[in-house]
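ok here's the first one, seq then struct tokens
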Amino acid sequence: MYFVGIDVGKRYHEAGIVDSQGQRHGKSLRFANSQAGAHKLLKRLRAVDPNLGAVAVAMEATGHYWYALYAFLMKAGVPCHVINPLQSDALRNLYIRQTKTDTQDAFLIAEVLRFGQCRPTTLADEILIALRQLSRFRFHLVDTLADAKRRALALLDQVFPEYDQYFSDVFGKASSALLHTYATPDEIAATDVHALADLRLTASRQRV
């Protein structure tokens, strides 16, 4: 049985392989966080076991950078485990040399898997995970937009407190066009009323 530990990074990953006796199988493999890099890893794993039946992989849950590789390996039929970094930290503390390097960490993660300290990883369907991430991103954008609007209204209230009485939606097209053209109350007051009306009609597509 071969145990593969992967130290996950933003641009590059590092993989280390040990056998059932804890002997390292060659040097660690550095590969890019890309499809080409994933195929490079798969080629290395198949060199160890062509059928991939005696290979198991473990990787730390580092941000979101692990997921693409996890999904790729699972589709290739390679059993994968995602571990909490605290598990590898506990093993790292057993070593005299506690310097953290990608190469060392890759083999440490492999040892965590070899010692049987990894619980089976069960994740939702890939489509559900994608929808969940998109939903979270949408909620983040909505919150960011709402915060930006509150800040804009606070500034507008300081220079033109009565402005919101004239528009049902201060951030609508007609209002935005007016503020983009005339930045202050004085500029609006100095503008011919017909020019203001024409601006609002054009911006609102003749609805105002």
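and now the second one, same deal
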Amino acid sequence: MKKVVITGATGLIGKNLVEKLKKEGYYVIVFSRDEENAKNKLPDADEFIRFPEGSTWKEKVTEADCIINLAGENIASGRWTQRKKEKLRSSRIGTTNKLVEVIKGSANKPGVFISASAVGYYGYSESEEFTEDSPAGTGFLAELTHKWENEANKIEGGETRVVIPRIGVVLSGEGGALKKMLPAFKLFLGGPIGNGRQWFPWIHTDDLTGIILKMIEDETMEGVYNAVAPEYVKAGDFARALGKVLKRPALFPVPVFALRLLFGEGAESMSKGQKVIPERLVESGYKFKFEKLSRSLQDILRSD
């Protein structure tokens, strides 16, 4: 039975991923700062290890066949103060560094290291298209994401495949952007963020899980993959599609100035976007379960 270690498993992606891994016959080891919280949220997992303060996590890394690194402070959980920015850095770069150093120094290395990244790598544009070969953008989030990936890539060229999914907006009934939008829409007060012209790269949580499973099992997959759906929509299109599924209007845009009051510099990550193409993912042969936004929303809201 293959052993998989997951960091950040109590986040939005984790529950679905752990369930799918168990169904596929994997032995799942969850690394968490709060073991009891992890046990409550992820009862299907096999082991819970305190990380990074615990004493046994390094041993578990050397025993694993696969490491999935999803750790990262939520970028939309408060104003981007200097303290918040430092948490964003340390939770991504610092955590990845700890794992990489143990893998590099181990005689028994995992077969694959899957380290999450984000489409924020590309910066923002209303006109450009971004494939995996596009350069990094500018600004805090792009620079942070670039450094995050560089940390993971320090183990390239050895026995461990390094695979980096650049993840878009994850659509799930469990939380994230969609969950935050629903109350306003249900009260007939929903609408796009700002003018709605910014690109909205999205992915259904089931497809993201499927992509990660393929990355584990397909030994030809290595390097960066844009983990987004192949249908390109803008924020206004997304709001209208959500309103249609909920049978609600999408007439009340969220003003950008209000986001700036709440999130400071972080408002940019919500009010701007990028058109991201999953070029390498399509070439890999991955078959999307949810290619269309409308079907994705119908599935999530029906099961919500």
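notes on #2: The radius of gyration is 19 Å. Residues 82-104 form the longest helix (23 residues).
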